[in-house]
Amino acid sequence: MKRILCIGAGYVGGPTMAVIADQCPDLTVTVVDINAQRIAAWNSDKLPIYEPGLEAVVRRCRGRNLFYSTDIPGAIKAADIIFVSVNTPTKTFGAGAGKAADLQYLEKTARSILEHADSDKIVVEKSTLPVRTAQALSRVLHSNTRGLKFRIVSNPEFLAEGTAIEDLLHPDRVLIGGMEESAIEEVAQIYAHWVPRERIITTNLWSSELTKLVSNALLAQRISSVNSISALCEKTGANIDEVTRAAGRDSRIGPKFLKAGIGFGGSCFKKDILNLVYLCEHYGLPEVAAYWEQVVRMNDFQARRFVGTMLSAMFNTVADKKIAILGFAFKADTGDTRESPAIAVCRQLLEERARIRIHDPQALDNARIDLKDAAGDITYCEDPYEAVAGAHALVIMTDWKNFRDLDYERIFERMEKPAFLFDGRNLLDPEKLFRIGFHVYPIGQKPLTHF
After folding, report:
1. From CA 354, how far away is CA 365, in angstroms rounded?
2. pTM for the full predicted model
3. Are residues 329 and 400 both part of a single domain?
4. One of 24, 268, 280, 381 is an active-site residue; which one?
5. pLDDT digits (tens, 9 = 90+) for 132-162
6. Domain limits at 61?
């Protein structure tokens, strides 16, 4: 029975190892983390992250062949294959601040493996990393004087939060890169328990590392491209949904990631693009760097433009006005708020002296953390109808499906008049809302107002 270890019990390591344990009963899977509170949560009835389907998978495997522990040294000694899934945030200091990946946690993990390993290991990069990070990882690990051999493999994740379990069970592809065929094959055999072999792609180490950055950059590019056109639609009277529906019928373009909105969020897109920008600058490609950096700039512009629309519609001031924010997670079906557009929008509204009322089905705890240093009047509401009571405006920030089913006639009655509704996700039917009495401002469409 092979022993699999994952160092890092976050949004990637947690679900990935749960599915591996579920699909590979012949393997023993252990997940470790220095955060004892997080490990305790994985061992409890309330998991530390929300992901549809995750709880059922964990319950089936936990205690059977899936274990969560803080005993990092012991787990390293016992493991045959070690997945490294630690945080690699953007640097906030020193050379490359604001763009380069901060690899201090990765290096500390490598040194921990080096310290406690007493046999040869396969070490799998699961974190998103800059190209050629494996070279640095290898140098650390092979500095040992005990003759231990560490084979480095890159196996980037391609999970979308909210559908992570489905993505793991039915992936478009599993990418495995390495320099030694034997190590690549050992990792491939894990996924081959349930993933068809034709979907397991193997490459060299550097191609695998770069593919993750490029995949996220291309997806984010589509979002920023559509959002840039949404601004033009609002000026010209075109309808962004009609434009993207027609454009997406071109088989060369396709319909995915052509939904206009307030902008992308999450832990990956912005971080990975800025990492790509830094790499291009480092290798003397300033034009390429500037091209990709514009994707992030457009995303920031969309959030500022959205708040600007609110100010313009509400008589150029939101001071002392109550604004109901429905949704704080960066997307539906997750409690993750990292880089959520709601953070920037709420901070801008607070700077304009608005009073904000925030509701989200899963993300209120994270919202409190994200806005803990923000000055102003903030209330966090478990009930959406509580959030809208006495509000001058309602703002849709996350595309939760249950927001479609709310009683908007009841909401309209509870709000101050005129009642404004700003749909940052084009989630709702603007014509229906207009008939109720709202002044409706969708993204990339002509506003419907009673003025």
Report:
1. 21
2. 0.92
3. yes
4. 268
5. 888 889 999 999 888 999 999 999 999 999 9
6. 3-203
